[in-house]
Amino acid sequence: MTLRIPGLLLVVTLLGACSSEKPQPPPDGGVVDMHNSRNSLDWSGVYEGIVACQDCPGTQMRLTLGQDGSFELSRRALVRGAAPSSAKGQFTWQPDGNTIVLDANGGTQGFVVGEGRVIVLNSDGSRPDAAGASLLRLESLQADARTGLAGTLEAHRWTLSSATDADNKPLASLFPSDDRPFVFSFAGSRLHVEGGCNGLRGGYQLGADGLLTSGQLASTQMACDPPLMAADKALAGLLAAPVELVLVAGPEPKLAMLAASGETLLLTGQLTPEARFGQPTTVFLEVGPQRLACEQSPSGDGLCLQVREITFDDKGLRVGSPGEFQAFSGTIEGYTHQTGTRNVLRVKRFQPAGTPDGAVFALDLTVESETIAE
Predict the structure, then answer these.
(1) What is the DSSP string of 138-173?
(2) What separation in angstroms does the CA of 27 have from each of 16, 24, 30, 216?
(3) Per-residue pLDDT tens over the stretch 94-126
(4) 39 SS3 class
(5) H or E stretch at 134
(6) CA–CA dist 216, 212 (Å, integer)
(7) Which residues contact 63 (CB under 8 A, 6 or more apart)?
(8) What is the pLDDT of residues 122-173, one digit of tens each?
(9) Ramachandran region of residue 97, left (φ > 0), alpha (ψ -120 to 50) or beta?
């Protein structure tokens, strides 16, 4: 005897049999999100950053994650002469698809994987609060020839962001003014430091062991408030002896300068205009002591620098007569104007491709500086 089942009944029976295999919607009627870091992000690569350290200024951490579940982890305390440690092994994804845990070789350290970064978890596996979070950034491959420590030094301007003494206590004396931080620039074999009161400049050598040795650094002779002049003196003293450099790579790289006397300086790098826009032309601008009212104020306060271009001959003497001062609605990277001070600046002018009216200006050197009495 042949049993015939109506087609509609067959379809209903098959759907009922398969329904138990489908994910059930959440009780509130929301949509189930099956995306996570593991299946949605290109997470393999090299991550690097500085994590907190109880008895040192920080620890350089470098984590390499392989698509096959392998890892390499290296740590190095930011202390002069510290030896790095390294480990290799396997990591496992946790059920949430966003967290990985290293095996015993990596001390079962956990990380939350995000877009271009990982967050280092606390030792108990909990997530740190926003203020204490330690991030490792995914390194990007450079499309140009800036490789190695020397190339990275030259491709960035380095702003001093923190400093500690031999007892790991903050060196507040190096930060006398929020608007005049020390900024280091490296070009060829020349070192130039702006900030504080007077600029420092001179030659330097970079050894294969990462030691930077400065020659006798020359200084301008402006008189400033005592805290600014004291900061200049303190920094020059630290640079008088060789300092060990530790580079922490990433989109916004960090540079540690480790002094033999125990001080640690941490600097943050920003790509130079040359690295971003190519080769510039050089112009000399005289900046008046007071700012002028203008319609397109870059700071939004209705005031602009007053600027005029001047010319020097090959002997460094002024030639010709400068025109009238004009309101300058742009900005000069690396220059902070002090009301009441007239400056002559050697400025690099860049013309980014595709922006005929969008010139970019960056300070190269302060040629003259004069305080004008009101």
Answers:
(1) EPPPPSSS--HHHHHHHTEEEEEEEEE-TTS-B-GG
(2) 20, 9, 8, 73
(3) 999 999 999 999 999 999 999 999 999 998 999
(4) helix
(5) strand 134-138
(6) 13
(7) 46, 47, 48, 71, 72, 73, 111, 118, 136
(8) 989 998 887 666 888 887 544 333 468 899 999 999 999 999 999 999 999 9
(9) left
- Quick one: tokens of 118? 């990982």
Distance CA 34, CA 225 (A): 60
Locus of tokens 């943050």: 268
Reported as half-sphere exposure (CB side, CA atoms, 13 A), residue 258 has a value of: 20
Confidence (pTM): 0.73
Quote the tokens at residue 66.
């392989």
CB 201 within 8 A of CB 190: yes
CA distances from 156 to 48, 224, 254, 272, 345 (A): 18, 28, 10, 5, 20
CB 74 within 8 A of CB 46: no
Q: Which amino acid is at 49?
A: G
| Helix, coil or strand: residue 37 | helix
